[in-house]
Write a structure and sequence with these properties.
9 strands; seven-stranded mixed beta sheet; globular; Rossmann fold; alpha/beta; single chain; 2 domains
């Protein structure tokens, strides 16, 4: 674990990403993308398929519909791809292909026992988010879960979901009393843009320390399991 020591604000609200941060999905995003690409006639092994898959990998953490708008150009094609993606991902979830990141549930429970509010966010659609929560038995784990549609339609790297969590929970008096934690540079950038006092990248998902630091992370954690102790150490 590495971090800077300039934190001064007592953290009252903790906004956690799901896939890659608190949820281990074993590469299901790429598998679901394969299904979406096939639905639109993009054949595996072609240059177009490889380029699109590279973009999916580079934009992990971004709202999936935004990714598909970039890849396929028109709103109709983007929605077709997104529907196929969400269907495929949901089927994989139903097959038991996800699990929590080791210690994630315990970390969330510890943070809440310490008197902080936790919100879970995702770049997936609500139906997929609910399927993941149901598969893990997490439906009642936190008081609020958010997807891009819950925050007006814009996902990461925009700050909207973080700010929505701040407004809805009223857990903090100042946005600097918010911690944002995720496994991608998009998670980090959304926290920075929201003005969060702590913005942490975790090394259990898509991106690494260099990407986190470049995006403005204040902390880099090996896993979300470290988070309760880090929060206790900063107020």
């Amino acid at each position: 674990m590495t971090h800077r020591t300039d934190m001064t604000h007592d953290i009252r609200l903790v906004v956690l990403d799901m896939a890659g941060t608190t949820v281990a999905d074993g590469g299901l995003v790429e598998r679901a993308f394969e299904a979406a690409a096939a639905d639109l006639g993009v054949e595996p092994g072609t240059p177009g398929h490889a380029a699109k898959l590279a973009h999916v990998r580079a934009t992990m953490g971004e709202s999936k519909i935004s990714v598909f708008r970039h890849l396929f150009g028109t709103e109709d094609l983007a929605r077709r791809a997104n529907t196929a993606f969400e269907k495929a991902y949901g089927e994989l979830v139903d097959q038991g292909c996800i699990e929590q990141v080791p210690g994630a549930r315990e970390a969330i429970e510890e943070i809440q026992q310490d008197g902080r509010t936790v919100v879970l966010t995702t770049g997936f659609a609500r139906a997929t988010q609910d399927a993941i929560l149901g598969a893990l038995g997490w439906r009642d784990l936190v008081p609020l879960t958010l997807c891009p549609a819950d925050a007006g339609g814009r996902g990461r790297p925009f700050p909207d979901m973080v700010l929505e969590a701040f407004v809805r929970t009223k857990a903090a008096d100042d946005v600097r009393q918010t911690a944002v934690v995720g496994d991608t540079s998009y998670d980090v950038l959304s926290g920075v843009r929201a003005g969060a006092g702590m913005v942490a990248g975790v090394l259990t998902g898509a991106h690494g320390e260099d990407a986190f630091r470049t995006s403005g992370a204040t902390h880099v954690l090996t896993s979300v399991a470290e988070l309760p102790a880090v929060l206790r150490g900063i107020g």
